């Protein structure tokens, strides 16, 4: 199978392929369907996480929250414990394992949260003729810790993690305008220009992902990033958490067209 | 004082006036600032309520959620136990009292939820030349129980309560277009036309508010309504809840202009 096949998959076909052994990225899969960041925490911490998401909608835009213990929902009709290519397991904020199936680790008190993913706004930008440099280079978008604090909630606090994409100066306004219409997938950028102003000392050394690809005349543009919930887990150390591995997302039954504001 | 004075109040001035004894409606107060529906429930039920709001954003658009026990927040800088003109107290789903001050009833485990209010989209419609019939008549907008079920969450279930406004047939498209840009205050209407299709048998007998005011050529237009959380309390019977009295809202520090989608 190749990208053209993956691109045309229904969410159900994509999830079946993943369940049957695909462990790589889901970038480009299931055109037109929203992909999501996963974070599952025990019911005991779920109210605080929901409050954190409510207060920080740019890094944590909620697409769906499952019932406690549930492995699926009306917006994700697969099995969340087998249908994500790879998972990260955290105990008291420490990454202890990476797994491709967490059906044996799932607990009756775990609450799965799905957060919007930048793949959706990237597609909208590409359609508008704004290239994604990291796609052409075959790399993962660079992500950085910043000095932009999230609003804390209960036990949870974190700085905002951002992703960075280089955009030609004359396309920056279109980039902002287009992304602003997608609040459910991080929305408008949070910063344009000088990385030092948000605490990034060396653009070439991201905290996650690959070094940036910038062309002559590109302005660095920064978006709140779905890795923020994992940074929050590392900082706030809940007893247990399961997240997706970067780039290996949950493919939902939500159409991207539903995520555009009127 | 008159409506022109109230209209020009800052949120702080409005809350002080209410704290000092105003017990009537807040319709028309603090032009440009969002007013909100209040529902406070114990921490034990707060996750379920948050899940209910997440799954039913049209009747329950979340503007803010306070920390457990808190009486204020960054988006409501007053005292939520004294700065709403009148409160309704529910015990196991039964309305047991109406009070003008609940500072003595507040508990350390109560979580206050603020939901968007139709006053905000009404102002936008009036600015577009779409009259609010009930304002001219000096009545309260009619509200109805419907057969449109909310998606349940944990202990909470409810049918959707709707408000109804008569709109000239040629202004219905503008009405939908304008309201769709305000998802945080109920958003686009949920139904246009025949009330029978959503289980309303007699338009002249609303479940809350006053009988409708319709002019020749008006189409009945229905919006999801902020009374839905109180209907949910009556149906699902949490141990304890405090809500605002209809039309007597919490005046927030959120600018209405922040609620418009890009």
From TrEMBL, chains A, B:
Gene Ontology molecular functions: lyase activity
InterPro entries: D-Glu_cyclase, Putative_hydro-lyase, UPF0317
Keyword Lyase included in the entry's annotation: yes
Top-rank taxon, per record: Bacteria
Keywords annotated in UniProt: Lyase
EC numbers on record: 4.2.1.-
Protein family according to the UniProt entry: Belongs to the D-glutamate cyclase family.
PANTHER family for the chain: D-GLUTAMATE CYCLASE, MITOCHONDRIAL
Annotated protein name in UniProt: Putative hydro-lyase SAMN05421630_101948
Source organism (scientific name): Prauserella marina
């Amino acid at each position: 199978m190749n990208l053209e096949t993956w691109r045309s998959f229904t969410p159900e076909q994509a999830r079946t392929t993943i369940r049957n052994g695909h462990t790589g990225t889901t970038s480009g899969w299931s055109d037109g369907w929203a992909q999501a960041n996963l974070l599952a925490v025990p019911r005991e911490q779920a109210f605080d996480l929901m409050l954190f998401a409510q207060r920080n909608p740019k890094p944590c835009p909620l697409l769906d929250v499952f019932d406690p213990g549930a492995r699926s929902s009306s917006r994700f009709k697969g099995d969340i414990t087998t249908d994500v290519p790879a998972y990260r397991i955290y105990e008291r904020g420490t990454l202890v394992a990476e797994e491709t199936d967490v059906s044996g680790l799932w607990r009756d008190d775990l609450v799965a949260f799905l957060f919007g993913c930048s793949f959706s706004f990237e597609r909208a930008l590409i359609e508008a003729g704004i290239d994604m440099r990291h796609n052409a280079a075959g790399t993962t978008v660079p992500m950085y810790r910043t000095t932009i604090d999230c609003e804390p909630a209960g036990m949870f606090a974190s700085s905002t993690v951002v992703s960075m994409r280089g955009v030609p100066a004359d396309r920056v306004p279109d980039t902002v305008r287009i992304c602003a219409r997608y609040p459910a997938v991080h929305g408008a950028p949070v910063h344009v220009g000088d990385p030092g102003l948000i605490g990034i000392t060396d653009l070439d050394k991201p905290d996650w992902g690959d070094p940036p690809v910038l062309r002559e005349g590109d302005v660095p543009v920064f978006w709140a990033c779905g890795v923020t919930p994992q940074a929050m887990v590392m900082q706030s150390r809940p007893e247990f958490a399961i997240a997706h591995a970067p780039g290996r997302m949950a493919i939902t039954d939500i159409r991207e067209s539903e995520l555009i504001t009127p």
